[in-house]
């Protein structure tokens, strides 16, 4: 989640885009923040070729919501964590509760966790302690680690190296440059691109996309944030992923169906079979 991003936007939703030729999934969204009921969000996503969704927690209430929603809907998985901006004074009791939630079989991710140096909402020491603890939880539970990394690339990579990364690591809303993409590729970290890769001022992000191997790519909305062009400024939702995927295929110079197939395979490798 890009907490604090964006301003007031028109609340009218964009039209349904052309369906993708091969189903993909939204690797990161926040159904608890959706302006429509979950049933409607899932129906519109399916109509656009987004068959599955990972809904992500940022604190205990949203993590509980994610677990409950995943438990109710077959095509939804959950991620549970404390967002780095919500780690001020984080306690062992809170971390214990996150790990307890992670025991649910529909929880397939520990995240979003990581570091956020763009906002100063939590001291760095607390963010670091929380991130290290979430890495340990991911390794103990065998879940994928979903990372929020905002202007903290060096420290995120360093802490992963120091702690020993889990088997599966996903950089949510990848925000690094081509050099960082190459480092992530060398370490086998998955890189999930969101609608901001379509923004006009995002050429460094597009260079990172070009550098990222096809077998390490994911796509996400981070909905309701980061709506892709041509609908930037409107509320985001999983059904708008086709805009991002088509743009990614053009940037990568690959066939759209090939990219969709790779994204789906990468997602199953990251989060398990559906």
Question: What would a concise description of this structure say?
Answer:
40% of the residues lie in helices and 16% in strands. With 274 residues, the protein is an alpha/beta fold.
What does this molecule look like?
- The protein is of the alpha/beta class and 274 residues long.
- It has one domain: Metal-dependent hydrolases (TIM Barrel), CATH 3.20.20.140.
- Helices cover 40% and strands 16% of the residues.
- Strands 1-2-3-4-5-6-7-8 form an 8-stranded parallel β-sheet.
- The longest helix has 18 residues.
- About 3% of the residues have low confidence.
Shape: globular
CATH architecture: Alpha-Beta Barrel
What order do the strands of the largest sheet run in, or round the barrel if closed? 1-2-3-4-5-6-7-8
SS element count, helices: 9
Topology as a string of helices (H) and strands (E): EHEHEHEHEHEHEHEHH
Count of discrete structural domains:
1
User: End-to-end distance, in Å?
Assistant: 24 Å
CATH class: Alpha Beta
Please indicate the percent range of residues in DSSP E strands (runs of 2 or more): 15-25%
The third-level CATH topology is: TIM Barrel
Mean pLDDT: 95
The largest sheet is: 8 strands, parallel
Rg, Å, rounded: 17 Å
Helix share of residues?
25-40%
Question: Which runs of at least 5 residues are low in confidence (pLDDT < 50)?
Answer: 4-10
Q: How many strand segments? A: 8
- Secondary-structure-based class equals alpha/beta
């Amino acid at each position: 989640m890009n907490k604090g991003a964006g301003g007031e936007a028109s609340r009218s939703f964009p039209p349904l885009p052309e369906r993708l030729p091969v189903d993909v999934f939204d690797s990161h969204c926040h159904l608890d923040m959706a302006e429509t009921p979950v049933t409607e969000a899932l129906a519109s996503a399916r109509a656009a070729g987004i068959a599955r969704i990972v809904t992500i927690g940022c604190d205990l209430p949203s993590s509980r919501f994610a677990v409950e929603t995943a438990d109710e809907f077959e095509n939804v998985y959950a991620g549970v964590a404390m967002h780095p901006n919500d780690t001020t004074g984080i306690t062992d009791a809170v971390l214990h509760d996150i790990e307890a939630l992670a025991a649910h079989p529909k929880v397939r991710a520990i995240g979003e966790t990581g570091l956020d140096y763009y906002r100063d909402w939590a001291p760095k020491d607390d963010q670091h302690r929380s991130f290290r603890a979430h890495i340990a939880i991911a390794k103990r539970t065998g879940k994928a680690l979903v990372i929020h990394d905002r202007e903290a690339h060096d420290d995120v990579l360093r802490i992963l190296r120091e702690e020993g990364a889990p088997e599966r690591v996903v950089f949510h809303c990848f925000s690094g440059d081509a050099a960082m993409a190459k480092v992530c590729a060398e370490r086998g970290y998955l890189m999930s691109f969101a609608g901001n890769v379509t923004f006009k001022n995002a050429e460094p992000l597009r260079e990172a996309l070009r550098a990222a191997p096809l077998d390490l790519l994911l796509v996400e909305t981070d909905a309701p944030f980061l709506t892709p062009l041509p609908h930037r400024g409107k509320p985001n939702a999983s059904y708008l992923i086709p805009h991002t995927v088509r743009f990614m295929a053009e940037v990568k110079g690959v066939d759209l169906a090939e990219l969709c197939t790779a994204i789906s395979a990468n997602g199953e490798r990251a989060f398990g079979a559906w």
